[in-house]
Amino acid sequence: MLQRSVLPFVLATFAASAHAQTLAPHKDDLFAYPAILSSEGDSYRVVDYREMRDINGRDQIPERRAQAKYVDTGVRKMQQDLVLRTDEGNIKHVAVGKTEGASLIVLYLHGQGGSRKQGVDDFTFGGNFNRIKNLMVANGGLYLSPDFSDFGDKGVAQIAALIDHYAAQSPGAKVIVACGSMGGALCWGLARDAKAAKQLSGLILLGSLWDDGFLTSPAFAAKVAVFFGQGSKDPVFPIDKQEAFFRSILAKKPNYPARFVRFETGTHGTPIRMTDWRDTLNWMLAQK
User: Fold this and answer.
1) CA dist 193 to 1, 78, 118, 153, 170, Å?
2) Are 36 and 45 in contact (CB under 8 A)?
3) Phi, psi (deg, nearest 5) at residue 198
4) Cβ neighbours of residue 278 under 8 Å, at least 6 residues apart?
5) Is residue 6 scored above 80 in pLDDT?
6) What CA–CA distances, in Å, run from 30 to 4, 37, 122, 135, 157?
7) Which candidate, 229, 104, 239, places its Cα nearest to that of 166?
8) Would you list the DSSP string of 163-225?
9) pLDDT confidence of residue 207
10) Which whole number is the average pLDDT over 100-124?
């Protein structure tokens, strides 16, 4: 009798753990991609983007304040503005969710001229930062938006120290780093750092730059998943070069977990506004 009762319990526990890293929905009907114009299997998609619909029709004040239905500010009660003291200096950061025992850790690294406040602004970028905050809290995760000294070695060392600290507080939690615009330099720097690369499960590049050095990095060797979101009319980082870099990854390792989402007619900030966080994170969580 004991054996018969234990087996279903074990199977149920196994099944639950197998699905533990699938994020539950949050306003999926509002944040899902409007339409897929074309695709190449699961790795490349062209998404329909229209400024009049996706900015003017979504924001109460275009590019400054999303309509209320896109935002749930109750998540602010789980938000803290903190300072981590490390050998690399004091790292100011905003933490949303569980600072210990988190199921998943996601960081957002801002671009030139930004700060830790960008990644937790509830109303800019169509409410997309509010969505990732709510997704992480609802799923027992931790979301971090830090300041850092620069986009070079010092900044990389600071973010690596931040990751190291919170990864130790949440053993077993996967770590995914999203980088907006010039923040991508930090994503690629972490990929080259042998210790940091071991802690990474995914890199998300949003309207960002490329780095050929990634192809020889510890992160590439470990098959860390990479997502690229890019506007087809990005005037800062041309999409042709980013797309070519994405294809160079698959050329070197055809089964590499890389995905490219092209926002047709989108510009530099479009991927930060339009990238479907839940879709992207669930794809990454399924990789390894």
Assistant:
1) 53, 31, 26, 10, 21
2) yes
3) -65, -25
4) 23, 25, 26, 28, 31, 131, 135
5) no
6) 46, 18, 15, 14, 37
7) 104
8) HHHHHHHSTT-EEEEEEEGGGHHHHHHHHH-HHHHHHEEEEEEES----GGGGGSHHHHTT-E
9) 98
10) 98
